[in-house]
Inverse folding.
């Protein structure tokens, strides 16, 4: 799944708890409508309180009135943000004191914890870390969301206003790049702050022109007129800004990506991972060896089916990687795989399918520069009127000589588990269920973290795996091996217990990632999102544990489809809250049927 560019939010010192939001599309009746409406009104108020700081995200997620606004980087930013956070917390505590409905109270408690965690993270980062962020990524993200084909055309003209504010041509506004330069200069002058990582800055400088070059394509796809000169000015300003970064930020950037342990542990917590780094390392190493053993047993079966002499899982995977699809054939192959997964889900009673099919497309070059991995694009969830999630495959450009480059995303055998993860029964089903099923904003926004989102998607791979063809099962295990590698390599890299070269060797020689994918993994662990990659296997283990408990309690009364439908209906809950919901709302009623 694609995560909002939190590196931009966190490292520019902006409030990180804005998140995603959801409101029900389907009508709710009677008492059900009353509590849900009240909960959503409280959540919307809390979201709106700080939406002005990052309106690019607020408007895209469905908070009204922010399409024309731009990121706030004016003076006393941190102090103003903390004042708003205090207001949000006081408002929620007052609502909790006067609320009697246990469902609304639970939602308010979820929101209070999210706000408290956000305050802690913002304060620690302000005190310890010099701000820095991928500015081109933020601007592209905002325009890409506002000018998306699913956004009503009447909202598009706001992009022209936002463009003039970015360039400083609107009254009362300075160019965005000047605000950023001022903020960076002021904060970098403080002694003792942790500077940005050199590799991150270099990569941003490399990719910024690609994202800026992708902006005209977004505007050209609309009916808007008169944007050309303003966009040319913004592009010129960004070119000058990049040179400023090269001259002023790059020379003081730190050479080592690793953060102090306390900041790394804070990152883990913010991604929903509560274990210590040492516990994660042990979990990952044990899982890694066990999964690799499964692959060793399965690979000879795949080889026998294919008539190959090779039996080592590494050799079999390399043979399977030779079968790749490109261009229109790639999209057709993914769609065919997704359709077959839908048939499997229905035939095996794994979950109740949404009424509409899952969507997918190939990313543009600019989108790929911003997010180089396959992911799910989630539409606005607050006030959604039928917009749908989309499974996005990275852009694979054809070589100049007409050939195609090898890519792990083009491997036919690998499409099974990737589709199960990003589409169904993974992310797409999870978010479509929230969009169509009336999940409260609190459960789709403030409870959102990588562990409960990515944990479900990895669990979705696991429940689909037994019904995939053998080569799909082998790649499903390979994907699980990668997640097990993440949960120990990420903390080891950030605690300086392993070198990037050693970690990359494991990813390429044991996990069988190609060089580009392995490099993306190292960048992800070390500076894009330290700690986030551990959330996949951590969340997966949490769900597997809950599944085992449920089967133990219910025995032959366990119904997988009913169980998975129940989990999806809960939205994104913290593990302890989800466990309580399963025990009281799923297990207890079935035991009472005796």
């Amino acid at each position: 799944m694609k995560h909002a560019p939190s590196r931009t939010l966190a490292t520019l010192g902006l409030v990180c708890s804005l998140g995603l939001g959801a409101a029900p599309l389907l009508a709710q009746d009677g008492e059900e409508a009353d509590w849900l409406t009240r909960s959503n009104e409280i959540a919307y108020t809390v979201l709106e309180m700080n939406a002005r700081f990052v309106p690019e995200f607020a408007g895209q997620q469905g908070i009204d009135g922010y399409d024309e606004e731009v990121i706030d980087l004016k003076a006393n930013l941190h102090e103003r943000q903390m004042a708003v956070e205090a207001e949000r917390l006081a408002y929620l505590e007052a609502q909790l004191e006067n609320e009697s409905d246990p469902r609304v109270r639970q939602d308010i408690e979820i929101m209070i914890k999210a706000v408290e965690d956000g305050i802690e993270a913002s304060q620690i980062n302000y005190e310890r870390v010099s701000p820095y962020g991928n500015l081109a990524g933020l601007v592209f993200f905002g325009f890409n969301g506002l000018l998306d084909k699913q956004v009503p055309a009447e909202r598009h003209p706001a992009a022209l206003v936002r463009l003039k504010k970015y360039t400083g041509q609107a009254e009362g506004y300075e160019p965005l790049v000047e605000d950023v330069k001022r903020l960076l200069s002021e904060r970098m002058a403080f002694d003792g702050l942790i500077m940005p990582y050199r590799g991150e800055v270099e990569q941003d400088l490399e990719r910024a022109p690609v994202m800026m070059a992708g902006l005209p394509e977004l505007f050209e796809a609309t009916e808007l007129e008169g944007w050309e000169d303003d966009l040319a000015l913004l592009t010129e300003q960004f070119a000058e800004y990049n040179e400023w970064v090269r001259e002023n930020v790059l020379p003081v950037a730190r050479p080592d990506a690793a953060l102090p342990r306390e900041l790394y542990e804070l990152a883990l917590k913010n991604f929903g991972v509560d274990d210590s780094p040492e516990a994660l390392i042990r979990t990952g190493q044990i899982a890694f060896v066990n999964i690799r053993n499964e692959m060793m047993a399965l690979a000879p079966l795949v080889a026998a089916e294919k008539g190959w002499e090779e039996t080592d899982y590494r050799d079999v995977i390399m043979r399977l990687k030779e079968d790749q699809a490109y261009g229109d054939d790639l999209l057709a192959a993914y769609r065919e795989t997704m359709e077959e997964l839908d048939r499997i889900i229905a035939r095996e009673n794994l979950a109740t399918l949404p009424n509409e099919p899952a969507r997918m497309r190939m990313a543009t070059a600019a989108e790929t520069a911003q997010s180089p991995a396959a992911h799910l694009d989630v539409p606005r969830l607050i006030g959604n009127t039928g917009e749908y999630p989309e499974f996005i495959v990275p852009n694979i450009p054809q070589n100049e000589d007409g050939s195609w480059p090898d890519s792990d995303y083009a491997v036919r055998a690998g499409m099974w588990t990737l589709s199960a993860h990003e589409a169904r029964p993974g992310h797409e089903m999870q978010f479509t269920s929230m969009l169509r099923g009336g999940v409260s904003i609190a459960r789709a926004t403030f409870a959102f973290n990588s562990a409960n989102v990515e944990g479900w998607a990895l669990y979705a791979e696991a429940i689909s795996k037994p019904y995939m063809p053998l080569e799909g099962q082998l790649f499903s295990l390979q994907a699980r091996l990668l997640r097990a590698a993440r949960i120990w390599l990420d903390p080891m890299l950030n605690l300086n217990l392993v070198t990037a070269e050693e970690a990359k060797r494991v990813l390429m020689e044991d996990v069988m990632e190609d060089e580009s994918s392995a490099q993306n993994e190292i960048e992800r662990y070390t500076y894009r999102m330290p700690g986030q990659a551990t959330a996949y296997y951590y969340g997966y283990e949490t769900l597997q544990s809950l599944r085992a408990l449920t089967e133990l309690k219910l025995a032959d009364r366990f119904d997988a489809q009913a169980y998975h439908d129940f989990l999806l209906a809960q939205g994104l809950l913290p593990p302890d809250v989800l466990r309580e919901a399963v025990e009281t709302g799923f297990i207890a009623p079935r035991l009472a049927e005796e």
Remarks:
- Residues 133-255 form one domain.
- The chain has 25 helices and three strands.
- Strands lie at 359-362, 375-377, 390-393.
